[in-house]
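Hi there, hope your week has been kind to you so far. For a while now I've been wondering how a particular protein folds. I'm sending you its amino acid sequence along with the C-alpha cells. Could you read through the record and tell me how the C-alpha cells relate to the sequence? Take your time with it, there's no hurry, and the full record follows here.
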Amino acid sequence: MEYEIINGSLEDLSEIVKLNMKIFKGMYESEPYSLEQYHSKLEDKIPIINVAKMGNEIVGDSIAFQKEDSLYLWVLGVSKDHRNKKIASQLFDLLEDFARKQELSVSVKTYPVSNEMIRLLKKRGYEIIKTDDSGAIHFRLDL
C-alpha cells in the first residue's frame, strides 16, 4: 500500500500526538508532549501541519509555524515502521515549498540524540547557526 503526503489540520492533533508519543518515547530526558501541550504551544500560532498517511493511518507528521523571519519546524516524526521511504524528505519538501512562497527561511532546533534528523538536515543543506546551553543544535536554511 502506498502512502500520501497531505496538508493536515488541528483536527489531526490527537492522532499525531499518539504517533509522536511512540516515536519520541525514551528519546529525550523528558516525556513526549501531551495533547494539551500541543494545543498550548500552538494556541497563538497558525500552524502548518502536514501528514503522511497510509490508508487512514497517520505514519508521519510535521508541524511548523512562523517565528520571526523564519518558518520554524517544531515537530517532525515518522513511524519506525515507515522510515527509509523518503517520508521525512517529502514532509520537508512541502514545508520548504511553503516557506519559499512566503519568502521565509526554515529553522529547526534538534538535539544530538536525533542523529537521523541531523543527517537529513545536513543533506538538505541546512547550516548550523548555533548550539545553545541545553545542547540543542539550531539549523537554518535560507531559500
User: Anything to note?
Assistant: Residues 87-101 form the longest helix (15 residues). The longest strand covers residues 57-67. The mean pLDDT is 93.
